Amino acid sequence: MTSNRNLPFALLTILLIALLFAFYFYFIKPVKEETKSAEVSLTTAKQEVKTLQARSEAIEWEDDDAGEMELMKRLPKNRELPDVIQLLQEAEFISESKIQSIVFNDYDGNIQDSNLTVPEPESETAGETDENPVDASVDAAEGDVATDQTPVSEIAQVSLPENLMLLTLETIVVHKDYEQFLHFIDEIEKNDRIIKIDSVKFSLPGEETGSDNLETMSSTIQLTTFYLK
Q1: d(CA 19, CA 146)
Q2: Where are the domains of the chain?
Q3: Taking phi first (over 0 means left), then psi (-120 to 50 degrees means alpha), and beta for anything else, what does residue 80 get?
């Protein structure tokens, strides 16, 4: 009788053990294998990333000359003021704005205070300087020292590499409306050379141009560009 009573208990125990083994082989063991496989895949992926990084560095090393050429577009070896003036005048022409004046500061102590007055387009009989505003502006920049306040960028207060120089310009521009002002700024930012817009100030409509152009607006734009020396 006793053995008959223990038989169900023994069968139940065997069944539980069988279920535990089945649970391990069908559920736990596959999860462990998937975890190991994922760890192997992760290790392989890390190795591939390191390989790609090494290849990328090698390609950058081989293309160093091309990178230097691209850098030269963004950071010229000279201040190249005529190019900056031409950039502003192209933005003026495309946006149909009107530059009234340009003041610049190159921080080198030689022509630290310079004022460029853009001639009026209607002054056709004023002389050769009016016929070529770019050259006239550059000549004025190289020779004249003005008493106006020189624009200074906040970047000048930051410690920079010795060979990295600043060129800050402040220009007063008249626009027909705000959209024309945005167009002017967009044309400046399209240039390859690194140019930072430091600040923009607006005047009331017609304040700078008189009562004949009450619907125009005037902006004072300070911008800074960089060059190597």
Answers
A1: 96
A2: 2-62, 76-228
A3: left
